[in-house]
Design brief:
Blueprint (H helix, E strand, L loop, with lengths): L6 H10 L4 E4 L3 H14 L3 E5 L1 H6 L3 H14 L6 E8 L1 H10 L3 E4 L6 H18 L2 E6 L3 E4 L2 E3 L6 H9 L4 E4 L4 E2 L11 H7 L1
Length: 197
Amino acid sequence: MAYVSATDMVIDARNRKYAVGHFNLNNMEFIRAFLLAAQETQSPMILGVSGSTAKYMGGYRSIVGMVKPFIDHLAITVPVALHADHGNFAQVLDAIDAGFSSVMFDGSSLPFEENLHKSEQLVEICRKKGISLECEVNGIGGEEDGVVTVGGTADPEQCRRLGLIGINMLAAGIGNIHGKYPADWPGLHFDLLEEIA
């Protein structure tokens, strides 16, 4: 049960009102530390991998080749998802082919209809393979994998349309930012989150 898609753990977290930690890997030592922490706390965990980290660590397949043996060697029993984070279409396909259990397609910089079309293609692929799929709309502010975006707030109608195609998770800006929050940050828009949810 240890190596799973993120879908069931996220649904359980929502139903039982707890959070699932998503921690970004940067090297092999992180893998061991995160897995041991998850097991010790009996907490499900999402291990995130950016495109630049995948490149640094020898590609998506190399990372799967590290994570799965560590899960076995450390006798990890809690659910662990290996998530390719903020990937473009080609990166997501590479991560799927490598054996990731969860992927995120970040089409937020594309025109919405193109983002939706590519997301639909990925829904079909991921559904057949039992992989969880997260998609992003509009864009989260801040810096992610060397890309700086202004971000902002998501369009609820675009969120609804993406949700209807069968994605498992949605990344939607509600004022949240990757990285450091500026002093003049206006805060989170919980009213928008409620409307989207």
